[in-house]
Write a structure and sequence with these properties.
Layout lengths: L1 H4 L1 H9 L4 H4 L4 H13 L2 H14 L3 H6 L1
Helix pairs in contact: 2-4, 4-5
């Protein structure tokens, strides 16, 4: 979404995702937010999102992917 319709739209759609509370524990949700923030030029939020994703990562394979 962020690449197709712009990062702000991508961020807005992520915040409307059904089951948002469950998604917050999945490392790929903050990674997706991070990418939207990166595309929008929000350096601090992008860094925070990556750090959160890495903390939530369940194994070394996910950590390398993130």
């Amino acid at each position: 979404m962020a690449r197709a319709q712009g990062p702000e739209k991508g961020l807005a759609e992520l915040e409307k995702a059904p089951g948002l509370s469950k998604l917050s524990d999945d490392p790929f949700f903050p990674a997706a937010r991070r990418e939207s923030h990166r595309l929008a030029g929000h350096g601090n939020q992008a860094r925070d999102g990556l750090e959160r994703a890495l903390v939530l990562g369940r194994n070394s394979t996910e950590a390398r992917l993130l």
